[in-house]
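Private note to self, pasted from the team thread so I don't lose it. Backbone tokens:
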């Protein structure tokens, strides 16, 4: 069963197409990565799916229904935004108390553990929190809500590497014990690659990729060696990236059956391509024409 279904979903802001004919099926009970450059449409898509803005055209179903003004869907959905806003007079303790009443599956014990883990000063005014502490508030709400569908939109701005790792570890552990559907938007792709099961890549408002993580991890290879030998090997290949430095060259190409063996037979070095580098190459420019 799918937690999210969209069909030719579009959102226009005046003459700007933030989303353009997006058709997606996101299965329930999985962790989906929503990737793309700034302005690709990720936040717009999540706001549509949580009923915060209206679509210009197309259809969407979330947990079996239209999310717009639908209490049944919205009470099962938690959306943690990149720049979550709270009243200045609130403290983290107030936010958590309100969240407990909003989410039917709220786990107060988990919330208390996470407050301690993130060393969050829960009685300090929200307006006096650091950027990282403010992010921790959202993370705690998102995890402790145990909502059947949880969106995290770049939830860890300002967190150091240790705190980001803490978030990823706690998300994985709690997801394993209490499966639900998670949609995670992030630029720290390699840090979350072991969490993701399915990836959606948005580029200029369109779906560039919707694929299983295993498929993407084996989608490309990097070949390197003498520039003339690399170029000779690339003839007819779909090249994602080519860098030459003097007499040497390194290229990222789409992997085809036997392509790694052929590269090694040609005397070239072959290395895997990380998910982050693959996504970067797919979004910095379209694949180049085959080398001739």
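Design output:
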């Amino acid at each position: 069963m799918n937690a999210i279904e969209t069909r030719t979903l579009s959102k226009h802001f005046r003459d700007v197409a933030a989303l353009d004919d997006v058709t997606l099926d996101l299965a329930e009970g999985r962790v989906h990565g929503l990737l793309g450059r700034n302005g690709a449409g990720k936040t717009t898509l999540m706001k549509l799916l949580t009923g915060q803005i209206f679509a210009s055209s197309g259809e969407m179903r979330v947990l079996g229904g239209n999310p717009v003004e639908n209490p049944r869907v919205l009470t099962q959905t938690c959306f943690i935004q990149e720049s979550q806003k709270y009243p200045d007079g609130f403290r983290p303790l107030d936010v958590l108390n309100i969240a407990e009443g909003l989410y039917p599956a709220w786990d107060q014990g988990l919330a208390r553990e996470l407050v301690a883990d993130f060393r969050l000063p829960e009685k300090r005014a929200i307006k006096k929190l650091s950027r990282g502490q403010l992010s921790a508030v959202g993370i705690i709400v998102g995890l402790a809500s145990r909502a059947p569908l949880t969106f995290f939109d770049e939830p860890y701005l300002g967190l150091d590497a240790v705190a980001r790792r803490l978030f990823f570890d706690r998300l994985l552990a709690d997801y394993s014990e209490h499966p639900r559907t998670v949609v995670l938007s992030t630029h720290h792709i390699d840090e979350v690659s072991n969490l993701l099961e399915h990836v959606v890549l948005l580029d200029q408002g369109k779906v560039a990729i919707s694929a299983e993580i295993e498929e993407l991890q084996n989608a490309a290879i990097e070949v390197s060696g003498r520039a003339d030998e690399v170029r000779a090997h690339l003839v007819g290949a779909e090249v994602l990236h080519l860098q030459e430095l003097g007499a040497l060259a390194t290229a990222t190409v789409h992997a085809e059956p036997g392509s790694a063996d052929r590269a090694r037979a040609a005397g070239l070095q072959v290395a895997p391509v990380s998910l982050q580098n693959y996504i970067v190459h797919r979004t910095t420019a379209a694949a180049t024409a085959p080398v001739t």
